[in-house]
């Protein structure tokens, strides 16, 4: 048995470059065993062709190939994390375990349980900030309470930010000889209980960032960065992305700050996972209409921009951000269907699904969130076409029959739906 090894646990940081906890693991004085656990508590609910699993799997395979060039391997495991760690403790003489922090409620609970188990084995755990520039307690109000409105949070974030300090990169290459020398057979996707998905994650691109705000609202242009799945699973370093945004485009940097804002909201107010951030909206009487919900899910509402967005999502796992706002607002305010239904559907379909942002944006759309669109702000899906797809390019791509007789009539009339929404919200708040 190898003496005194260090284990590095990959999670939402699927890269060897500029990886905080990996850097410190490689400098721990021990040989490093790199592992990844397909967590059954997470993956059991997923379909066998989930494209995110395919994306993770292919990313892990690339890491394994690189590790093999160092004479090492990636140990890929599957199971409930506590059970997996019990087996690892029995098989290896582990002295230290390193991982990067995750701020979601499930991950926090899991990491506490694993750390407690390791402590009983006299194994020390070392957790590091890696997926954010500022974590939950680093940007607070003067009274040490969390910000619940974005703009003051952003201003304070920028005040704290030091380009040189906060975008310094962690070297993980010069110590590559510290990886444990062993050969592990990389499992097939089928052995892990999955099949390869036909839906592919697009490459990200940062070439057009200088004009980001000029085109970001126009879905037909398809010129967004496509960065979010890579950030979600940590294939890129947030430090590198923020440094690039800081030097290139302030609006794009603001989007990265929004990500951290919603992460700290989720950390400080975990109730938002299932409840309205603003409890005064608890009295909104939602229409739990499964037939209407299905029309929305399948892109058959009779509103071309809404339908285009939903069909793009179902086919590709992507939806343009402007269209996300329109489709979400339509579900909550035109159809008066609970935002939690829409949030769950997006969570199932989006390649870049990330709990904090998905929840924060859905509560924004519903008017129930911390820094939300007011309840009386109701997008008109028809005038939105004039603003953002006036030549119908995006709509024609996804709803080619929108001018044909077989295209459904609008399932609700905008003016009537708006009045109904205002009445329901006012009643709930009275």
UniProtKB/TrEMBL annotation:
Record bears the keyword Metal-binding: no
Q: Which GO terms describe its molecular function?
A: deoxyribodipyrimidine photo-lyase activity; DNA binding; FAD binding
**Which residues are involved in binding FAD?**
212, 224-228, 252, 255-262
**Is Lyase among this UniProt entry's keywords?**
yes
Site positions per UniProt: Electron transfer via tryptophanyl radical: 286, 339, 362
Q: How is the cofactor bound?
A: Binds 1 FAD per subunit.
The UniProt similarity line reads: Belongs to the DNA photolyase family.
Protein name per UniProt? Deoxyribodipyrimidine photolyase
Organism, as annotated: Pseudotamlana carrageenivorans
């Amino acid at each position: 048995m190898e003496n005194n090894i260090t284990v590095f646990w990959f999670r939402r940081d699927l890269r060897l470059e500029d990886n905080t906890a990996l850097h410190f693991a490689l400098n721990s004085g021990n040989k490093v065993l790199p592992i990844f656990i397909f967590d059954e508590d997470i993956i059991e609910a997923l379909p066998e062709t989930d494209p995110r699993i395919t994306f993770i799997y292919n990313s892990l395979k690339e890491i394994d190939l690189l590790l093999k060039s160092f004479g090492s391997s990636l140990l890929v495991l599957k199971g409930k994390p506590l059970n997996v760690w019990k087996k690892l403790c029995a098989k290896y003489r582990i002295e230290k375990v390193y991982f990067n922090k995750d701020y979601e409620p499930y991950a926090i609970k899991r990491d506490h349980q694993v750390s407690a188990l390791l402590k009983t084995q006299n194994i020390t755990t070392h957790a590091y900030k890696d997926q954010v520039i500022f974590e939950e307690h680093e940007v607070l109000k003067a009274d040490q309470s969390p910000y619940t409105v974005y703009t003051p949070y952003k201003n304070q974030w920028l005040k704290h930010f030091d380009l040189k300090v906060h975008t310094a990169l962690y070297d993980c290459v010069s110590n590559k000889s510290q990886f444990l020398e062993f050969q592990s057979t990389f499992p097939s996707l089928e052995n892990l209980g999955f099949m390869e998905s036909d839906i592919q994650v697009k490459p990200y691109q940062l070439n057009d960032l200088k004009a980001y705000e000029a085109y970001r609202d126009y879905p037909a242009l398809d010129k967004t960065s496509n960065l979010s799945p890579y950030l979600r699973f940590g294939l890129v370093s947030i430090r590198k992305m923020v440094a690039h945004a800081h030097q290139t485009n302030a609006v794009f940097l603001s989007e990265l700050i929004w990500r951290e804002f919603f992460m700290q909201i989720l950390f400080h107010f975990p109730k938002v996972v299932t409840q309205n951030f603003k409890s005064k909206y608890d009295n909104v009487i939602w229409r739990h209409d499964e037939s209407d919900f299905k029309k929305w899910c399948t892109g058959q509402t009779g509103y071309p921009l809404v339908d285009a967005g939903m069909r793009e999502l179902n086919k590709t796992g992507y939806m343009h951000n402007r269209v996300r706002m329109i489709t979400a607002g339509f579900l909550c305010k035109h159809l008066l269907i609970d935002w939690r239904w829409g949030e769950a559907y997006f969570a199932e379909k989006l390649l870049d699904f990330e709990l904090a942002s998905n929840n924060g944006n859905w509560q924004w759309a519903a008017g129930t969130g911390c820094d939300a669109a007011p309840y009386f702000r109701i997008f008109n899906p028809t005038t939105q076409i004039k603003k953002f797809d006036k030549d119908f390019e995006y709509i024609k791509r996804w709803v080619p029959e929108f001018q044909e007789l077989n295209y459904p009539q609008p399932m609700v009339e905008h003016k009537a739906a708006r009045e109904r929404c205002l009445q329901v919200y006012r009643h709930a708040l009275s």
